[in-house]
Design a protein that fits this description.
Order of helices and strands: HHEHHEHEHEHEHEHHEHEH
Largest sheet: 8 strands, parallel, barrel
Strand order of the largest sheet: 1-2-3-4-5-6-7-8
CATH class: Alpha Beta
Number of domains: 1
CATH topology: TIM Barrel
Shape: globular
Radius of gyration: 19 Å
Number of strands: 8
Helix content: 40-55%
Strand content: 5-15%
Structural class: alpha/beta
Length: about 290
């Protein structure tokens, strides 16, 4: 195409020619394998990003050379350990020292793994504290954490998690995180505005948000500037797109047309061969038609 013709294309048409950046959360897609083998599987599937849960159990001196060789990027790692990070949550001011210490350690780890983002979890609700008090504690904690992560140029992506599903498919024998604090996106985006840090955004997990509130496309359109990462799985069952109720063809188009530049991460339990599902999702994510407004 000639340069003049290219310049005359509508911006939306140009956006549709750009492939979406896709990553894989390795544990649910390739369970039980060593991280090195999981990375090889990600590369085989034609994806360019990967995510994993426990950086503390991985050796960056082993992993980073492999990710470079495979042409992969470590998209994010988990900061304060888990859905209910006891002693290092955000809702209780008494846990602030533990939270900040873990953010410091995770920021240093992010530098070693050559990633610029870390997942942060609110933790469970604190008995005896009002929601307003816990909200304020989260805001203060994120403001304090800004001073740490800014030095490393690492963005904290705080995850909204559903509290309605009876079972968490990623951990069917464990807790279904019904007591997780940050379970609604309006409150999460309000926190981003209150904290006012360029190093604080939201991890928008389509599976969790669909269960809690739906309205995925409008929420993406209105808040894309404050979304730092996106996770993908269908409802119910947390399997690959196309197995449940979410119209992923339309949602993926909305993400592309929003101008989002970050990664979209596969965090689902494949209902069949993982590599085949990843190929199908990749094709769906990059289909070219546009959405009406």
């Amino acid at each position: 195409m000639h340069r003049r013709a290219l310049l005359n294309l509508p911006l939306l048409a140009l956006a549709k020619t750009t492939a979406m950046k896709l990553s894989v959360r390795v544990e649910p897609l390739f369970p039980g394998l060593p991280l090195t083998t999981q990375l090889e599987k990600v590369a085989k599937a034609g994806y360019h990003g990967y995510e994993f849960g426990d950086w503390r159990a991985a050796n960056p001196k082993q992993i980073v050379p492999l990710q470079r060789k495979l042409g992969l990027e470590c998209v994010c790692l988990v900061g304060n350990r888990g859905v209910n990070p006891k002693g290092m949550g955000l809702c209780d001011p008494a846990e602030r020292p533990g939270f900040l210490a873990e953010i410091q350690a995770s920021a240093e780890a992010a530098q070693k793994f050559e990633t610029k983002k870390m997942v942060v979890l609110s933790g469970f609700k604190i008995p005896g504290m009002t929601r307003a008090e816990q909200h304020a504690s989260m805001v203060e904690g994120m403001k304090r954490a800004h001073d740490i992560v800014a030095k490393y140029d690492v963005t904290m992506i705080v995850e909204v998690i559903n509290t309605l599903a009876k079972i968490e498919p990623l951990n069917p024998k464990g807790d279904n995180h019904a007591n997780y604090f940050l379970d609604r996106t309006p409150e999460a985006f309000a926190m981003v505005r209150e904290v006012g840090s360029p190093y604080f955004q939201i991890l928008y997990d389509l599976y969790h948000v669909q269960i809690m509130e739906g309205n995925l496309i409008e929420t993406i359109r209105e808040n894309i500037a404050n979304i730092g990462h996106i996770h993908v799985a269908d409802v119910p069952g947390r399997h690959e797109p196309g197995t449940g109720e979410i119209n992923y063809a339309n949602v993926f188009r909305a993400i592309r047309e929003s101008g989002y530049k970050g990664y979209v991460g596969m965090e689902y339990i494949p209902s069949k061969d993982a590599i085949k599902t990843l190929a199908a999702v990749k094709a769906l994510a990059n289909s070219s038609s546009s959405l009406p407004r």
